[in-house]
């Protein structure tokens, strides 16, 4: 884990931000960790409100090179009904690093956090981008333990689409050291490159993406954690083998998930899997349309929970 101190002043948001956002990031959360296969895995926990209607849990899983704070302005909207956690996958955020990284290890990390955070029986997992791929693996391996899995803008493309428009894996490195926090902050970019009409969200994420090291500042993620080896895993098969309810949320203007991609993923997931397109959102759906994302996710979870209740009444 990252043990180097960072001044609270570095985390103060400078951009103008709406009240809903400032309220959300101010909601208290617990910083916790659990050791998985010798590696400390950090996560945040937002306990359910005392009068929560349900005793269910949600686990949010970030994208590549990202961290749990990518969800800190989303998760408070669910504590009225759920106990909520957001994980730092190994090699990212404030979790430890490994010599090698695999989806199987990440699935074990997610399972351990679900248990350590007390997310209860049949929790829901929500994974964005790289985290969506890890959610596919989790759902294929441990899906019978879940209430559902939500994939957020993680592309599984058909062989035909791949042949017509091959995607080059992004090159992730983390070797540069910046002389000051502000110099590093100015270099923060979303990947894949995109604009964002909510600069306060981008700034908040960027401020939580840095750590002090000898000689200056650098990004928290381990470049090796995002190596090209991950693209060799059979995520298409993982998605087909998910053993729980599943859904896809994607951005209307996503650079990675087109409508053709969504249609192909729907064919793999089956006719009962909801496919939700968020208007005006790009790849980083929860950054581009945060409240629209919250509404879409609330709807999916409510539909699944009601379906569970209906099945219980039909099969006493």
Core attributes:
single chain; 316 residues; alpha/beta; Rossmann fold; 8-stranded mixed sheet; two-stranded antiparallel sheet; 10 helices; 32% helix; 17% strand; globular
Count of domains: 1
Which spans of ≥5 residues are poorly predicted at pLDDT below 50? none
Number of helices: 10
Structural class: alpha/beta
Determine the CATH superfamily. Alpha/Beta hydrolase fold, catalytic domain
CATH fold name:
Rossmann fold
Radius of gyration, taken over Cα atoms and rounded to an integer in Å? 19 Å
Main β-sheet description: 8 strands, mixed
Round the mean pLDDT to the nearest integer and report it: 92
As a percent range, the share of strand residues is 15-25%
Q: Largest beta sheet: what is the strand line-up?
A: 1-2-4-3-5-6-9-10
Summarize the structure.
By secondary structure, the chain is α/β, with parallel strands linked by helices.
Give structural notes.
The strands form two sheets. Strands 1-2-4-3-5-6-9-10 form an eight-stranded mixed β-sheet, with helices on both faces. It has a two-stranded antiparallel ribbon with strand order 7-8. The model has no long low-confidence stretch (mean pLDDT 92). The chain has helices at residues 19-26, 103-116, 130-142, 159-164, 181-185, 199-207, 235-240, 259-269, 285-288, 290-314, and strands spanning 30-36, 39-46, 56-61, 82-87, 124-128, 148-152, 210-213, 216-219, 246-251, 275-278. It starts with 18 loop residues before the first helix and ends with a helix. The chain contains ten helices and ten strands. The protein is α/β, with parallel strands linked by helices and 316 residues long. The chain has one domain (8-314): Rossmann fold, CATH 3.40.50. Helix 2 packs across helix 3 (130-142).
């Amino acid at each position: 884990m990252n043990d180097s101190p960072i001044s609270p002043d570095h985390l103060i948001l400078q951009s103008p931000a709406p009240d809903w956002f400032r309220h959300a990031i101010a909601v208290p959360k617990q910083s916790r960790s659990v050791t998985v296969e010798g590696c400390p895995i950090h996560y945040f926990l937002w306990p359910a409100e005392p009068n929560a209607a349900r005793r269910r849990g949600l686990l949010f899983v970030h994208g590549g090179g990202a961290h749990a704070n990518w969800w800190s302005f989303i998760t408070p909207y669910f504590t009225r009904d759920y106990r909520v956690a957001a994980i730092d996958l190994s090699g990212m955020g404030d979790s430890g690093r490994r010599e090698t990284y695999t989806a199987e290890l990440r699935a074990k990390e997610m399972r351990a956090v679900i248990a350590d955070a007390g997310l209860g029986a049949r929790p829901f997992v929500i994974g964005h981008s790289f985290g969506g791929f890890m959610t596919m693996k989790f759902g294929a391996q441990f899906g019978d333990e879940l209430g559902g899995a939500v994939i957020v803008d993680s592309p599984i493309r058909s062989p035909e689409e791949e042949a017509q428009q091959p995607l080059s894996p992004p090159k992730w490195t983390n070797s540069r050291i910046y002389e000051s926090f502000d110099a590093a902050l100015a270099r923060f970019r979303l990947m894949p490159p995109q604009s964002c009409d909510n600069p306060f969200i981008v700034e908040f994420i960027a401020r939580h993406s840095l750590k002090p090291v000898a000689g200056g500042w650098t990004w928290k993620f381990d470049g090796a954690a995002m190596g090209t080896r991950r693209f060799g895993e059979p995520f298409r098969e993982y998605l087909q083998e998910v053993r729980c309810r599943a859904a896809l949320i994607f951005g209307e203007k996503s650079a990675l998930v087109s409508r053709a991609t969504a249609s192909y993923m729907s064919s793999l997931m089956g006719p009962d899997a909801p496919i939700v397109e968020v208007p005006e959102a790009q790849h980083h759906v929860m950054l581009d349309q945060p409240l629209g994302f919250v509404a879409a996710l609330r709807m999916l979870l409510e539909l699944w929970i009601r379906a569970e209740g209906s099945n219980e009444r039909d099969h006493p």
